[in-house]
Amino acid sequence: MSLTSNPLLQDFNEAPFNTIKDEHFKPAFIEAIQINRNEIDAITNNTEAPTFQNTIAALDYSGQQLDRISSVFFNLNSAETSEAIQKIAQEVSPLLTAFSNDVTLNETLFERIKSIYAQKDDLDLSVEEKTLLEKKYKSFARNGANLPENKKSRLREIDTALAKLKLSFGENILAETNSYELHLTNEEDLAGVPASAKEAFAAEAASRDKEGWVVTLDYPSYIPFMKYADNRELRKKLSLAFGSKAFKGNEYDNQKNVIEIVNLRHERAQLLGYDTHAHFVLEERMAQTPAKVKDFLNELLEKAKPAAEREFAQLENFAKTQDGIDALQKWDGSYYSEKLKKELFNLDDEQLKPYFKLENVINGVFEVATRLFGLQFEQVTNVDVYHKDVKTYRVTDVDGNYISLFYADFHPRKGKRGGAWMTSFKGQKIENGVNERPHISNVCNFTPSTPSKPSLLTFNEVTTLFHEFGHGLHGMLANTTYPSLSGTSVYWDFVELPSQVLENWCYEKEALELFATHYETGEVIPMELVQKIKDAATFQEGMQTLRQLSFGLLDMSWHGQDPSNITDVKAFEKEAFGNTALYPDTPETCMSTAFAHIFQGGYSSGYYSYKWAEVLDADAFEYFKEQGIFNKDVATKFKDHVLSKGGTEDPMTLYKRFRGQEPKPEALLKRAGLID
Ligand SMILES: [Zn+2]
Q1: What is the rounded CA–CA span in Å between residue 312 and residue 548?
Q2: pTM metric for this prediction
Q3: What is the pLDDT confidence band of residue 1, given thresholds at 50, 70 and 90?
Q4: DSSP label at residue 482
Q5: For residue 214, what are the β-bridge partners?
Q6: Which of 32, 128, 99 minimizes the C-alpha distance to 71?
Q7: In angstroms, rounded to a whole number, what is the distance separating the alpha carbons of residues 500 and 536?
Q8: Spacing, Cα 319 to ligand 1 middle (Å)
Q9: Residue 510 known to be catalytic
């Protein structure tokens, strides 16, 4: 097949799904990598002295064809995959990694960047240009480009070792999860468990050629058993099995891995000139320093603790009256909380769903965007899609100017991974005076329609839709010059602000009246139901906050100090949890050995960002509430200083320009019912 007939190598605007075939991808990747290589060679071979334009800007504008092909391919691999696509992914991923390593190790390229960086204050750069220069320089420096050869090779050794350790950390958890089963043959042991969960347990048993029921340590199995099973001894057994994953001293134990990971991370940070791994990570976060993160967590802890203790006492009381439980244990928490919640609110999804027909909710979120930002959404059918369920919309501003293309892919199917996410098929940028508008997509797995009923969303699905659409707006309204600073390319602890803030409209009468109408009667959702949703949303918020804070503090303890003297993982963890613990400790369990977020995933020194983002979104929404939730001035400020700016400036600066001050935790504490 010739490259000239490959649709991915043509100059396309909308992704050409109708003409792409699987066999187009690999040759397109290979060709686009070569094109990008040539572009970088042209930068390094340039005989003129390095300038911002001929090096930094040229580098950022390079590789666009490769980016487009990658986004089409990897979006398909998430939303509409097949064995063929997965096979191609395995073939092209090493090519992409090798290429990106070649770029980061390109010393001639770094020398050019470095010489521009050295003159950064004399170059009369715009704020955005300065940010881009900083970002490019750091992407090399933070990978060791400035180190002498011997230290460089030690850094590579550390990176290789860490990659292996992370892999083995994850494999151990998986092995421990998979090797455990709670096999039950007496139906009485399942008393309290809802029929649907019981059916799933029976199916699990059948799949293992066993009689009765099998409960596993996978969340969809573990959670319903802990929530509903009346048998306390069995809950204890399952809870201890869950909590002791990779902490049993067997071949799958992760204690040694934890110690090795934190020590190697520390050594790496020191090689690069940072005090600790947390200092290294937080340099590229809104929070900036470990001290700031610790202060942040401890301030919230102080405020949340009284509420958490009150809630715990209430729960303990409830368990005592219900079943005469004297000391509440970890394996009682979900069970009694579920019962208490039912008693207090008696709210279930079935009551709410008729008010949340998918089409109404979509129109609702569009209407919110219209009122806030003047955006108009028109469904279009002349754009290629990768599956017939995908809808496309042309988004314009109040003057009719084209803003973005929006893809919406809402229902589960084979070939789509679980969860919900925002992504893009084309990024925004300004090049040669032309503002290229983005193609943004939301992908979800919402309850589909049935022959007798339309798609009716649970309230959780409604907030998910608003959340992903908030990320979507961050992409759609992007208005920056350089591609790598556009849209959601912001610091990690800033990226959830637009998404989480939009969820707030789901709880407001003024917004719900726009779309939450009964799909049969047209009746607007009754306010007492809305109030119930709000009350239920803050149920046990103190306890949950404490739990999140304890994980954040544990993360900071592992990564915010010299770990060379730590020998006992469990003792260290207990100390780090400090006064966040509500339940009695169980010596046979350990959180750290299964804390995949920070030891396997990318959340090391970043777990705090969940709470950080909540503080931001509550504080931002408070501003809307003060001025009216559809206030145009506030919305315009949010668009001008946050949504359109991407990562072009320090996020705290952007935030303060929108809000007039730094974010304060009071709004979150109030919303969560932790203070009056
Ligand atoms: Zn999100």
Answers
A1: 16
A2: 0.93
A3: low
A4: S
A5: 183
A6: 32
A7: 18
A8: 35
A9: no
Distance, CA 188 to ligand 1 centroid (Å)? 41
CA gyration radius for the chain? 26
222 residue type, one letter:
Y
Reported as a single tens digit per residue, the pLDDT across 412-448 is 888 998 889 999 999 999 999 999 999 999 999 998 8
Q: What six digits make up the tokens of 484? A: 């790598």
At 364 the three-state DSSP class reads helix
Write down the catalytic residue from 468, 496, 541, 573: 468
Q: How many CB atoms lie within 10 A of CB 215?
A: 28
Does the pLDDT at position 22 exceed 90?
yes
Given a contact cutoff of 8 angstroms between Cβ atoms, the answer to whether 158 and 268 are in contact is yes
CB-based neighbours (< 5 A) of ligand 1, an ion = 499
Å from CA of 149 to ligand 1 middle: 40
Q: Residue 449: pLDDT band by 50, 70, 90 thresholds?
A: confident
CA–centroid distance, 494 to ligand 1, in Å, is 10
User: Residue 181 and residue 213: Cα distance in Å, rounded?
Assistant: 10
DSSP state of 185: -
Element (H, E) at 627: helix 609-627
CA of 520 to the centre of ligand 1 (A): 32
Cβ pair 384, 407 in contact under 8 A: no
Residues 6+ apart with CB under 8 A from 65: 9, 32, 35, 36
Per-residue confidence band for 364, with pLDDT thresholds at 50, 70 and 90: very high
